Structures are given as structure tokens and as C-alpha cells.
TrEMBL record:
Source organism per UniProt: Christiangramia antarctica
Domain of life per record: Bacteria
The keyword DNA-binding is annotated on this UniProt entry: yes
Classification via InterPro entries: BlaI_family, WH-like_DNA-bd_sf, WH_DNA-bd_sf
Family label: Belongs to the BlaI transcriptional regulatory family.
Pfam name, any one: Penicillinase_R
Key word Transcription present: yes
Protein's UniProt name: BlaI/MecI/CopY family transcriptional regulator
Amino acid sequence: MELTNAEEELMQIIWKKEKAFINDLVDAYSEPKPAITTIATLLKRMQDKNFVGYVQMGRSREYFAKVTKKSYFSKHMNGLIKSFFNNSTSQFASFFTQETNMSEAELKELRNLIDEKIKEK
């Protein structure tokens, strides 16, 4: 299950904060800040999707991520590779290196990462 853009923006805040009350989440947005009711609606939808949980503390709820950023991003990237690159990571890598205007230093760093992965296998 995927997050909408608004949910993903809120999820980024939750990942960064790790635990937060609704007022903390609203405060983390830049101006104009969304209404508390908007954030509450997003949180409810994200709970229904099992991305967010909470601990009841008196009359307040402290929210936390139930899915790691790495796990979400990994599934998201695998979906993109499957949908747009015929499930070919090499087609994705070719596109990524050609279309992102990587510097020579960044390309060398990427090559080193790939070389390390090859050694591990």
C-alpha cells in the first residue's frame, strides 16, 4: 500500500521526529501550516494503512512510525523499477546515471559501492 503525497510528507516528519504529538507534527510544517484536523485525518488514514501507530497518554496520542523509512523507500523503488524499467535494475541504473547529471566524483563513489557489493557476493 502506498502513501499519498500529503501522507508521505507527514510520514517524513514522523520518521525524523521518531515520536510526536499532533501539535509537534503541525509545528514541523512550514507556513502556511495545515490545520490540526487535516493532520488528524491524515494520521487516521495512515493508521488504517498500518504506517503509523500511537500510544495513548492521557487525552493525547503520541504517534510513531510502524514502517521504517528504508523499508518504505525500498518497496517504493522496487515498484518504480518494475513499473517503469521492465523490472530491470540495469535499465534503472543506466537511466539514473545518465539523467541525474552526476559529477565524476559521484560516479566514482557509485562504482565503488557496486564493486563492494560484487565482493560481498
